[in-house]
Design goal:
Number of domains: 2
Oligomer: single chain
CATH class of the largest domain: Alpha Beta
Largest sheet: 4 strands, antiparallel
Order of helices and strands: EEEEEEEEEHHEEHEHHHHHEHHH
Distance between the termini: 41 Å
Strand order of the largest sheet: 1-2-7-4
Radius of gyration: 21 Å
Number of helices: 11
Structural class: alpha/beta
Number of strands: 13
Shape: globular
């Protein structure tokens, strides 16, 4: 097949462009944020903006001296001073990456760096506009990224990328967290009540579920969000703050029967509920029901096999359910039909009394609320 290069030159002011009633490019007091899902890439660079068309990326940005320009992956070279008071920052993603997972954060940031045992670069950045209490809580959480991803590696398989880390953006500029490949960005509001490891667990679980294994179409989004939400449950379980079963029981009992979580099918939520409760919480509940049906050994084998077989690729709900049946040797059609495809509340074998929220629920619900603002 012949190879060719396309060069596109253009200019403009991204923050001045409006589509579908909003602007994805965000201006901040000290810079800008190019962060969003599912739409952000075409606000700042030409692309086939679909998760099934991945590429490797080099991002080179010239910004005024005194501000940082942060993107995905590693820095192939240190920042270089240019003429007229500008500095050029360069970043490189070494593995296939979906367009919406490519981000750019520009502003004044305090940066910490480290290297993990496997050689991964850890690059964390905190807006200098954060108040001291928010900054301390953010650091107490995001600085645990290497620890959290090391634990997630024992559950989901080897960490799939060359770098790790996180960015905490200026107050009031971002209303969600996003799992940008190798380096999630977090709204400072996640740390308004103190440290919050749940959101760090959630966004970094996406490095496996969403970033490495990406959806083939957006209707499969529960494969990203349900899995990342269930990672929070597993983290709670690991830290004796409430078992996955307790969290399941609490959610099942407290959502009203007519809530959107039950009237939306997670496997095809539609545009209005693309990031709704059915995708996040019912997606996680589906995984818990699968775990109960097949047992822990097969369940965690399914997760690790899924991330290995579809590494750096794209996948569908049908492929996941087929894999679950193959590994477990069970017919799971009824389970998946009830939890993924039926727009009504699944019936459990035994009714639940109203349970008490697990100890971790205050933190998980804070994460849940902000994520759903996305």
């Amino acid at each position: 097949m012949p190879r060719f290069t396309i060069v596109v030159q253009y200019s403009g002011v991204p923050s001045s462009k409006v589509a579908a009633g909003f602007t994805a490019w965000t201006r901040t007091p000290d810079g800008a944020l190019a962060i969003g899902e599912p739409q952000i890439a075409w606000w700042w660079y030409p692309s086939n903006d679909h998760p099934s068309d991945k590429a490797t990326f080099d991002v080179s940005v010239s910004v005024p001296d005194g501000v940082e320009a942060i993107s995905n992956g590693v820095q192939p070279r240190p920042p270089v001073r240019e003429t007229l008071g500008y500095t050029r920052w360069s970043w490189r993603s070494l593995k296939p990456q979906a367009t919406y997972l490519t981000f750019l954060t520009v502003g004044q940031y305090d940066v910490t760096t480290d290297t993990t045992a496997d050689g991964s670069t850890v690059y964390n950045a905190y807006s200098q506009l954060l108040t001291p209490d928010f900054r301390d809580a953010a650091k107490a959480s995001v600085e645990r990224t290497a620890e959290i991803t090391d634990w997630e590696s024992t559950v989901f398989g080897p960490f799939p990328f060359e770098a790790r880390g996180g960015v905490v953006t200026p107050p009031g500029t971002l209303g969600f967290a996003l799992e940008n490949q190798t380096r999630p960005n977090y709204s400072s509001a996640f740390f308004r009540r103190g440290s919050n490891t749940s959101v760090v667990v959630h966004e970094n679980a996406h490095q496996w579920f969403g970033d490495s294994v990406s959806v083939r179409n957006w209707q499969n989004i529960w494969l990203n969000e349900g899995f990342a939400s269930y990672a929070e449950w597993l983290w709670s379980e690991k830290n004796d703050e409430g078992t996955a079963q307790e969290i399941f029981d609490y959610l099942y009992a407290t959502y009203p029967d007519d809530a959107a979580i039950w009237t939306t099918a997670p496997a095809d939520p539609g545009t209005a509920e693309l990031f709704g409760d059915a995708v996040y919480d019912r997606g996680a509940m589906t995984l818990h029901q699968l775990r109960l049906a097949v047992g822990d050994d097969d369940f965690f084998t399914i997760l690790r096999t899924w991330t290995a077989e579809h590494k750096y690729g794209n996948a569908t709900t049908e492929e996941f359910t087929a894999l679950a049946e193959k590994i477990s040797g069970q017919d799971l059609d009824a389970l998946f039909q009830a939890w993924l495809y039926t727009p009504s509340k699944p019936v459990l074998a035994a009714s639940l009394a109203a349970p008490v929220a697990p100890k971790s629920w205050a933190q998980i619900s804070q994460t849940h609320t902000l994520l759903h603002e996305h």
